[in-house]
UniProtKB/TrEMBL annotation:
GO molecular function annotations of the record: homoserine dehydrogenase activity
Organism taxonomic ancestry: Bacteria, Bacillati, Bacillota, Clostridia, Lutisporales
Name of the featured protein: Homoserine dehydrogenase
PANTHER family recorded: HOMOSERINE DEHYDROGENASE
InterPro entries the record matches: Asp/hSer_DH_NAD-bd, HDH_cat, HDH_CS, HDH_short, NAD(P)-bd_dom_sf
Origin species: Lutispora saccharofermentans
Family recorded in the similarity comment: Belongs to the homoserine dehydrogenase family.
Entry keyword 4Fe-4S: no
Length: 346
């Protein structure tokens, strides 16, 4: 007997959204039990709606050649919007993947609140709403008896937040340290290995789809700060804001600085850090010259890492989870599967 479908609305169909659709297509057989059925794909210009489930193979082919999904022949229209989806109420999970806005959280904040209030689970890659309102969103999710998956928001494929929530349950996290941004790590690596200057390396990161829609978020340290803040507030039960973090980016570094460090056996990394000093929490994002004995020294290319110290589970360092649209989409799928399996994130 075929299982009841898990009805999905995709909101935001850019790099990560498209990669997520490709994953659903490529993993169709493995996902038989969950039986995902995409009823909506909604972008800035409108969307696609099929109450019986959009044919994801056809849409994947179409969207490879066409940017405007409202032109999709079966159910595409500028009239299909987030509000029309809310009115129809025929979804179980909303996957929110619109651009991160660290100042307002919009449009993601409204999408997530309304989805949770309407009884839909939410999985998101959008850091803005989580950064600005996680506690409130968690309460709305609990009140409506639905889940909120945020694994993608603080490192994508790198298991940071879920490892903290699930695998470190019952332990107090005392400090968080990490190389949390793949774009800057990739840029620093490119500058060292090929000798190109910062701007050229940034272009490569953009071509690889890992830089933010607004790449200043990466290179000026805000993406690292955002992820650090999400980890700190969620895992250390704090209510800090970006204003509490001293933030520095990588825009002023030169190839000559990197080469000089390499001659001394050191590597530059953009490190985000939350540490408690005399009852005060200190948070910073800054370029650090690391020695080979530092666990973060070996984080290469688009990879990232997080290091937790805790009272009862010791020190844990997780390395890997390269940034990229497919790993980010895979982390969304991971949350979706865990919600299906009954995992409680909130
Ligand atoms: N790229 C990555 O590796 C990772 C990204 N993220 C996060 O995932 C999110 C998406 O990233 P990415 O796919 O790279 O970004 P993109 O800019 O490629 O895609 C964002 C999409 O959202 C659409 N959009 C904008 N406003 C709205 C709206 N009001 N309603 C519906 N859709 C809208 C955009 O449409 P249009 O193009 O028409 O403006 C675009 O298609 C961001 O929040 C990012 O921070 C998280 C982890 C990794
Ligand atoms: N721009 C980010 C993408 C994932 O969050 C990065 O480079 O890590």
């Amino acid at each position: 007997m075929r299982r009841k479908a898990m009805r999905i609305a995709i909101i935001g169909f850019g790099g990560v959204g498209r990669a997520f659709l490709r994953l659903l297509k490529d993993k169709k057989d493995e996902l038989k039990e969950i039986n995902p059925q995409v009823n909506y794909v909604i972008d800035y210009m409108g969307g696609i709606y099929d109450p019986e489930g959009i044919d994801i193979e056809k849409l994947a082919d179409f969207s490879e050649k066409n940017r405007d999904i409202t032109k999709y022949p079966i159910g595409g229209s500028p009239e299909i919007t987030f509000d029309s989806m809310l009115a129809n109420k025929d979804v179980d999970v909303v996957i929110e993947m619109t651009p991160t806005n660290k100042d307002t959280g919009e449009p993601g904040m409204t999408h997530i609140i309304k989805s949770l209030e309407n009884g839909f689970h939410v999985v998101t890659s959008n850091k803005g709403p989580i950064l600005l309102g996680y506690k409130k969103l968690k309460e709305i999710a609990r009140k409506n008896n639905v889940q909120l998956g945020i694994g993608c928001t603080s490192g994508g494929a790198l298991p940071t937040i879920n490892a903290g929530i699930i695998d470190m349950a019952g332990s107090n996290i005392l400090s968080i340290e990490g190389v949390l941004n793949g774009t800057t790590n990739f840029i620093l690596n490119e500058m060292e290995s090929t000798g190109v200057e910062y701007q050229e390396a940034l272009k490569k990161a953009q071509q690889a789809g890992i830089a933010e829609t607004d790449p200043t978020l990466d290179v000026e340290g805000w993406d690292t700060a955002t992820k650090l803040l999400i980890l700190t507030n969620v895992l250390m039960n704090e209510e800090k804001t970006l204003d509490d973090i001293k933030v520095e980016g990588i825009t002023s570094i030169k190839v000559s600085d990197i080469q000089e460090a390499a001659e001394n056996g050191q590597k530059y990394k953009l490190v985000g850090k939350t540490v408690r000093k005399e009852d005060k929490l200190e948070m910073s994002v800054r370029l650090e010259k690391l020695n080979p004995d530092n666990p973060l020294y070996g984080v290469d290319g688009k990879n990232k890492a997080v290091r937790y110290t805790s009272d009862t589970l010791g020190d844990l360092t997780i390395i890997g989870g390269a940034s990229g649209v497919t790993p980010a989409a895979a982390s969304i799928l991971r949350d979706l599967i865990n919600i299906y399996m009954g995992c409680k994130f909130v």
